[in-house]
Each structure stands twice: as structure tokens, then as C-alpha cells.
Amino acid sequence: MTDSRRRVEADELRSLAFDAMPSEVAVLDADGTILETNGCWTTFAEDNGIAFHPDMIGQNYLDTCDAAEGDETATEAASGIRSIIDGERESFQFEYPCHSPDERRWFMMRALPFEYQGSRCVLVVHTDITDRREAELAVEERNDQLTLLTDVLSHDLRNPLNVALGRAELLDGDDEQVAAVRSSLERMNTIVEDALVLARKTDVEQLSAVDLPTVVRDAWSHVATADATLTVEPIDRIEADESLLSQLLENLFRNAVEHSSTSPPSHAREDAVEHAGSDVTVVVGPLDDASGFFVADDGPGVPAPDRDEVFEPGYTTNADEGGTGLGLAIVDRIADAHGWSVRVTDGDDGGARFEFSGVTSAS
Length: 363
Fold this sequence. Notes:
- Helices cover about 40% and strands about 20% of the residues.
- The chain is built from 9 helices and 12 strands.
- Residues about 260-275 have low confidence and may be disordered.
- The strands form 3 sheets. It has a 5-stranded antiparallel sheet with strand order 2-1-5-4-3, sandwiched between helices.
- It is of the alpha+beta class.
- α3 runs antiparallel to α4 and α8 runs antiparallel to α9 (about 325-340).
- It is elongated, with a radius of gyration of 32 Å.
- The chain has 3 domains: about 5-130, 2-Layer Sandwich (Beta-Lactamase), CATH 3.30.450.20; about 130-200, Helix Hairpins (Orthogonal Bundle), CATH 1.10.287; about 205-363, Histidine kinase-like ATPase, C-terminal domain (Heat Shock Protein 90).
- The longest helix has about 40 residues, at about 130-170.
- Keywords: Kinase, Phosphoprotein, Transferase, Two-component regulatory system.
- This is histidine kinase.
- It comes from Halomicrobium zhouii.
- Its EC number is 2.7.13.3.
């Protein structure tokens, strides 16, 4: 094959590749006149009612933008392209809506300069970003709903609940009906607190060097531990958000201490997140084979088939005793926010052992 033939074939290949690009592409000269467009550009023009010369070759793109008076998108596009032609910048891009009567659409326009036969030309590419933009809007809508839910839980529900709890404390504590009311109110308060943790943003904004044993003992003091015992093994300082780490530990301690099993011993293994109760022993220490730490207890433990489900919001086998099914979901959420992995396995004494790996040492 001769060099001349190779050049012809290379030109044909470039032309086919240009025409096959999935975005609308146009080449402009230094005056803004359209020199070439691809197939996607022509198809888009035809689909949007441009029947005469849908390829738009020979038309001035800047004049077309300028003629769209009051259209801020067209004005921004023309201004950006002119800045490329004048050499004021080497690239320009912006996102814009381009809705039709039948559907909502968004595009990103990008303009890049190149030299052709001694003249400055501009490559203009319009890419459909509708799927991405729709996903972003869905996330924004969900965040707005979570904000509204948080406000309702924080003020509209929690305030009257606190009043009811205060009044219940003034009633006869020995009365069985009063005790049932107080227990129900306390469970509602726990559900609200747990739901607030899940609904609020749990992203880690700044890590700091944390003395884990200190945070462990602090978190333990915030939980009604009754006759439970805490053992803290020596462990290096870690990088963590101290407030979120404390919430994680409190939920694990509460899961071990407050979710007392009322089943006979033969049924203990069936109670996936029901632990030993008020006399449980909890141990916190470093992992042997990885960077991280564990929290273990000597309760009934978690059966292997349930170990993935226990981290799902709402999963509990202890609803009658006040379980909300949110505590371990919060643990999983906080671990994920730190970039840690969490898994539950058997403890040395047969209970549940929660292992956190991927933790960065601050030593």
C-alpha cells in the first residue's frame, strides 16, 4: 500500500470516527461560521424541527446565538466561544437545560481551540447529561425530604414527647399501667434519637488523632450499663471523628447491655441481636491481623445466617423489649463514613464480636 493510499484511508477513518461520535459536534472558523458537523448534530437538528440544512454547515453559530435575544444560555455560549477565538482562554464549558415539549433535557457544551491551515478554529461539543442531572436532582430532592424529616423529628415530635416523658415521671411509678406508658414513651424517644442519627449527614469532615480507650470509657459512661463490665485492652491512637466514633461505640454498648434476652438458654442463638443483658462483659481491643479494633461481648452472639442482615435499618428480634432496629445500622453508617469495614463474627467467649478494619493509626 502506497503512502498516498494510507493517507486517504486515514482521512476516511477520521471522518467516519468524527461522524460516529455520540455527542453533537461542530467545527467553527475564526468568525464563528460552521465548517463541519457530525451525524449526531444533524440528527438532533432534524428531531428538533430544523428541516432545511440540518447540518447547519455555512451558518454562523455566533450569529444564531446572538439572534436568540433574552436567551441566557445562548448568550453564555457565544461569549465563551468568542473568548476561545480571541485567545483569552484555552477551554470553555458550561451546563444548560434544553427542554423539549415532551421531555426534560440537560447538556454540557465544551469548546476547544485548534489550528487549521494557519487559522484558529474551535471544536464545539454538546453532550447529553440528562441522566446524570436527573440523578443529581433526585439526590437533592431526597436530601430536602431528609431535612424536613429531621426538622419534624427534632422539634415537632421530640418536644411534645419530652413533655410527655416529664409528666410520666411525676406519676405513680409502682402502677403497672403507668410503667407501660413510661416504657412506651422511652422507646419512642429512642426511635426518634436513632432516626435523627440516620437522617442527618454523617460524613466525616475532619479526622483527628483520637485516644480510643478514652473515647471508649466516655461512651460507656453515657449508656445505662447496670452490672455490665467493660474491659479495654491497650490500643494505639487512631484517626477518627471523635463525636461519630462515640456514637458508634454507644450503639454497640447499648446493643450488648440493654437488649436483654428473655429466652431460655436453648433459644439464645435464635435471638440475633439480643445479648446477655445487664451482667454482660464487653471487651474493646486491637485486631491481631489488621489495622483496626473490635468490640466483643459474651452474650448469645449472632448466628451466621443473620450477620449481613443485622446492619439493615429496622432489623431487630427484640422489638417487644424496645429494640428499634436502627442501632447497628447507625454503626454501619458511621464506619462507612470513615472508610472502615465492619463485620460481625463469634467472640472468644461465644458472644458477638464486631470487627472494624481499614482504620488508620495516628501513632
